[in-house]
Every structure is written in structure tokens, then in C-alpha cells.
Amino acid sequence: RRPRTVFSGIQPTGIPHLGNYLGALSNWVQLQSKAEPDDELIFSIVGYHALTLPQDPKALRSSRTDMLAVLLAIGLDPQRSIIFHQDENPHHTELAWILNCLCSVGRLRRMTTWKSRLATSRNVNEESEVDESLLNAGLFTYPVLQAADILLYKATHVPVGEDQKQHLELCRDLADIFNRTFKARNPLFPLPEHIFTPSKRILSLKDPSSKMSKSAPDAQSRILMTDTATQIKSKIKSAVTDSVPGITYDPISRPGTANLLDMFGACTNENPADIAKRYEGKGHGALKVDVADAVEELLKGPRAELERIRQEKGYLLNIAEDGASRARERSEATMREVKIRVGL
Ligand code: ADP
Ligand code: NA
Prior knowledge:
Blueprint: E1 5-10, H1 18-34, E2 40-45, H2 47-50, H3 57-73, E3 82-85, H4 91-100, H5 105-109, H6 113-122, H7 137-151, E4 157-159, H8 165-181, E5 193-195, H9 229-237, H10 255-268, H11 272-279, H12 284-311, H13 313-342
Parallel strand pairs: 1-2, 2-3, 4-5
Helix pairs in contact: 3-12, 4-7, 7-8, 9-12, 10-11, 10-12
Bound molecules: adenosine-5'-diphosphate (ADP) and sodium ion.
Protein name: Tryptophan--tRNA ligase, mitochondrial
Family: Belongs to the class-I aminoacyl-tRNA synthetase family.
EC number: 6.1.1.2
């Protein structure tokens, strides 16, 4: 078995919600605990990606530090994993530029993610005509920056959600184009593989036809990792379900109820359909009380740890500096080799 290099990133755009935690961040902690000693783990807070949509500079600056505190609070270990701010390693944008010069506009046009991010940010339908005067070039090419993030460390494995799979395909294509265009004795970049994570999509508590999201206008639609037990209780109590009597697990026709069961199951490591059987003859009220308890049980440890670490500004600064210098050291040789191969 060959040692793996795992890379993943998250944008510093506010305190993560329960969907981010269950769908992405908790998987990172699992990867860390299951890794072999010679596996390398690299987790990045990707500030440059956040700039592809308008950000308030003050809010971005504090989100950036908060996200580092979150990663530490949930159990990522800076001794074991490289945890760093992408914007503190200039090799990311250097490699992204070179990859941009190898990537056709046609290829980027086929990506659907910038279309949906643009539509969401402008509050219009995803199917509507794209007004290119509103599309900044950074948002259009951010999948190329993502490819650079991964290839810079010659990552072999990338945990990504379903919606990001097309970006990993692009990353593999760009690695292959680079390897073929700038041949030397060995191909420079390994083609990274996708790590499948079986986690469910957590839905909005107010509109179970869409996912829980930090950009939805109604703050009651999401549970944040900083929410208190009281806030969790009240948000789950007012979650939209249906008027069908009894509890059954049916994600298609009862998405709100199924979402409660999915959240419950994710917190307690149980099958949501099995949980539904226990509540068959009961109502939504009883289920909601227990879901709120399960969510509180899951979040209380990380929340307390987050509140503690957030106060430790000096510690956070040290961790960030150390992570950035390890990341830069780690990518230096690759960047030097890239420049030699392209003729710079
Ligand atoms: P948001 O949509 O809230 O802005 P992001 O797009 O920044 O979240 O996603 C960050 C990570 O969290 C991604 O890996 C994404 O797949 C995951 N994620 C986001 N929302 C959910 C959700 N509702 N359920 C499960 N995973 C989610
Ligand atoms: Na998003």
C-alpha cells in the first residue's frame, strides 16, 4: 500500500452549520483518525475562494480565524495534519496562473458550479440566462485554483461532495494536460482520486426542498455550530414537516420528516429508517424533542471547545504561522519543478 496524501479545503465564510459539519468537516476528523502513520493530511482554509463572491473585509477576516478555531475544536490535530490558510502560501496562486494558461474557456463553461453560485448570490433561478457582465473572472476560474490547491501537494486523495466531483475531474484533466505538455522523465502530477463519503445532505429546516445553507436568508433554517441548546431546540421545534400522522422514513414524499430522521441518525450513528420504526405511533413533537437532544449531544463538546479556542488569539496565530510555513515548505519543490518544466 502506497502512502496517501489527502487534501481538502473549506471556505472561511462564517461559522459552519450542521450540514457543513456532518457533510464535510466530521469526515476530515474521521480521515485523520483512520489514516496510516505514513499518510499525509493537508487541510486548508481557502480564503482566495471566498473572494469569488463579494465579502465584507472585516467579516472575512474574523471568519478566517473562526474557521481555524472550528477545525481545531472538532479535533483536527495540527501535529498530525497540516492545517493552514491558503492565502498564506503564495504557491497556490502561482500554480493556478500556470494551470489557467492550460485550461480552455470552453471547459470552464461546462462547469455548473459557478452558474449555481452566481444564481444563488443574485437570487435568480439557476436556469436563467447568465449575464456575463455580472460574472467575475475569479468565480469563473475558481475550479482551476482548486486544481492548483490539490496538485501543489501532489495529493492522491480528495474527499469531495457530489457537487464538487466535476471539479475533481477538471483537476485530473489539468494534471494530465500538464504531464503531457511538459514531459520529462516522469509525469509531475499524480491524478488524484475521489474519496467517497457516505454522509447525507442535510436539508433546510424551513424549506426541505433545498439544502441547509449558510447563504439562505432565514437564519432559522440552519443550526450553527455555535448555537446553544435553547437555540437548537427552538429551531428544530419550528422545523417544517408535514401533517401526515405518525413517523415514517420517506425522503421523497416526506422530505421534512426524513430530514429530521437523517439528522438524528447522523448524530447517533443509526439507520434513519430504524429510528422511524421506534416513532411509528408517535408524532412530530416527540421526534423533534429527541432530535434536538441528539444534535445538542453531538455539538456540545465542539461548541465548548470552540468558545475556548476562539479566545486564544496568540495560540491561533502560532498555529496559523506554523501551518503556513509547513505548507510552503511542502509545496516549494513542486513549484520549482513546475517552473523549470514550463521554462520559467
Ligand atoms: P454552504 O452551501 O452552506 O455555503 P459550502 O458550499 O461552503 O456550504 O460547503 C462546504 C462543505 O460543506 C462542502 O463540502 C459541502 O459539500 C458541505 N455541505 C454544505 N451544505 C451541506 C448540507 N446541507 N448537507 C451536507 N453537506 C453540506
Ligand atoms: Na455554497
